[in-house]
Write a structure and sequence with these properties.
Layout lengths: L12 E6 L4 E7 H6 L8 H10 L8 E2 L6 E4 L3 E6 L3 E7 L4 E7 L24 E5 L2 H18 L12 E5 L10 E5 L1 H9 L1 H24 L9 E5 L2 E5 L6 E4 L10 E6 L4 H29 L1
Antiparallel strand pairs: 1-2, 2-6, 3-4, 4-5, 5-6, 7-8, 9-10, 10-14, 11-12, 12-13, 13-14
Helix pairs in contact: 3-6, 5-6
Length: 300
């Protein structure tokens, strides 16, 4: 199997962000649909996920292949369209932070903090008691990582398009248990290297919008929204997921032409932080897929 750091690998899947449906979309090449091997319930991957989230009832039903309407545990990865070359799956982000309708006991319903001009840290200024429901978010990161890792094990596809990015995410209920990692392919890295101004002015603002939209949908509006952002400075691409010191960086620089580069996250503790970053990656990859298509059309 070719290493994406050193080779352009025929595309097996690509991502994009659907801002209207608050969803990550995975388009899987139909060659992979045909060669995808059914995952048995006895698989170490499947058993590991079940053990990590037992006794959560969401992890009881399992769809083992890409032929049906759903993939993985539950129904959070759903097939939506079958095109000539790709089959599209959608993953709708959950609303994690929910208003119970009860008055916040910490601030008495004022939404105010003891410190002037600060919101209550318990209700985030709403005045209502809130409850965080993490189960579906863990379900999504578990399923998405299982899906993409299994697709990467499929045989090479027949397409001439190259894989722009691969990713994987942990889904453990512990500190740093939602880490995100992967590889940006040579074509993506070459765009960052050769046209950083275009990337910074035209692409990264949309990536930041995707991350803010995703996080706000999951967690509601909070002061940390101002910390969510992206940057491309001096050859380093960085995503900030909303809290200081929590984000994603390249494991190298963009200086070498024709080379891919690994990326990894730091201090990502929750699936909300992971999915915020993944929404940003999906936005970047989706935009570059359109950019590459436009360049091909212009030269053909």
């Amino acid at each position: 199997m070719k290493n994406m750091i050193y080779h352009r690998v025929p595309r097996k899947y690509h991502l994009h962000w659907d801002c209207l449906r608050y969803s990550i979309v995975v388009s899987v090449h139909n060659d992979c649909i045909r060669t995808f091997k059914t995952i048995p319930m006895t698989s170490p991957w499947v058993q590991g996920i079940r053990e990590a989230h037992c006794p959560d009832p969401l992890f009881c039903t399992f769809h083992p292949d890409l032929q049906g309407e759903f993939f993985g545990f539950g129904s959070c990865i759903r097939k939506t369209h079958v095109h000539r070359d790709y089959t599209e799956f959608i993953i709708a982000l959950p609303q994690i932070r929910k208003d119970t309708g009860l008055t916040c006991q910490e601030c008495g319903g004022t939404g105010e903090h003891d410190v002037p001009l600060r919101n209550c840290i318990h209700c985030h200024g709403t005045g209502k008691k809130i409850k965080d429901d993490w189960d579906t978010a863990y379900l999504i990161t578990s399923n998405l990582s299982l899906m993409l890792n299994t697709i990467e094990a499929c045989e090479e596809t027949s397409t001439t398009e190259s894989q722009l990015a691969t990713l994987s995410a942990l889904s453990q209920r512990c500190e740093k248990g939602s880490s995100v990692s992967g590889v940006f392919g040579a074509d993506l890295m070459d765009v960052l290297r050769t046209d950083p101004k275009m990337v910074s002015l035209m692409l990264l603002p949309n990536v930041t919008d995707a991350m803010i939209t995703a996080n706000q949908h999951m967690m509601g509006p909070r002061w940390e929204m101002g910390l969510i952002g992206t940057s491309l400075e001096e050859g380093h691409l960085a995503f900030n997921s909303g809290s200081e010191g929590r984000g994603l960086n390249l494991s190298g620089t963009i200086d070498e032409p024709g080379r891919g580069c690994r990326f990894s996250s730091h201090n990502i503790d929750t699936p909300a932080q992971a999915l915020t970053i993944i929404a940003g990656i999906a936005s970047l990859v989706g935009q570059l897929t359109i950019h590459a298509s436009g360049q091909t059309a212009a030269t053909s």
